[in-house]
Specification:
Helices cover 15% and strands 53% of the residues. With 367 residues, the protein is α+β, with helices and mostly antiparallel strands. The two termini are 67 Å apart.
Amino acid sequence: MSAMIGGRTVTAQSTQPSTAPNSERRQDAPEARLQLNSPREASAAPEPKWEIEAHGGLSATGLQDNGAGQIPRTGGILGGLIGVSSFYFGDGARLFNQNEVAVSGSQPVPTITPLDPILTRSIVRRQRTGAFGVRVDRVLNHRLNVETTVDWARGRLTFENAALAGIEATRASFTSALARPLSTLPSTVTSVATLNDRQQSTQLFTTGALVIRLKTAGKVIPYVTIGGGVVVSNGDTPSATLVGKYQLGESGQIVGTDTVTLRYSSNTPALVWTSGGGLKYSMTRHWGIRLDARARLYPNSALTLVDATPGRALESTGAPFPLINLGALQFSSTAPLTGPPIAGFTTFAGTRTLVQVAVAVGLVWRL
């Protein structure tokens, strides 16, 4: 409403409340303008792109039985007499047994149980062991990650039960078999086996892998992985040494020694392929737990090696050296351990693929 006062027009302001909607008044308020201009909370912080994990678990390796074996030539019959590098295996054990059976006729005689079945197979297994490692993941998109993993496993290498039984059978049979032909003169025969078993060995796996998420949202994310890398093994390896010894004569004028060593070896580094899967559980935005299972495939590089060292020692007393002739077998100052030494002959070489299964639980930090 307007009125004329002193030549000026005065307009009175209405005292009635504004009919403008409440929403328009809220939009005019400074707080409302601040809220409208702020980004949404959901888009304020990007999702973490990196994951760092420390984990631990167990690993178990399959048997290393696949492979091929061969026995080195250890001697023969020269000039009608047996001359060998060892009686514990190969030609030496075979010729000794054949001669004993031939000269005994129908009478049963003790023979040597050769090491041949043990030498031509894998003699060692890796025991189930604990494993520890670290893993770094990088998110590529909502479906894919790439990761780098370093796993360290420390366990024991030990002889197979069949290998231990075979070594003992050979050791024991050597004594009884040689004692019979030497019994015509004063003599002693011994056979001793020394085992370096249950040796500590480590494996270091360094791998890279592609991680495929089977689900892209939620607290629990299942995934599968595939990748590859390299494995390196370190540490001592099992070995067994058999020493057969005979002394012939009243004062031990002829002393013969038959020394054989079995050794396990493995060629590394080697390429390794890995595949598996697991679950990730998000406890908070930045922390989670991972349950992971993987199979690692790498070449079976198990080797069985053998050394043989024949030896003779003479202790002259002024009397003639004793002599025993039994068919083609002669014990004298020049026989029968006259074959050449054998060093590092590969009697078994593993083939195909070895499989190691590892299960681990890890704590994940996302950043």
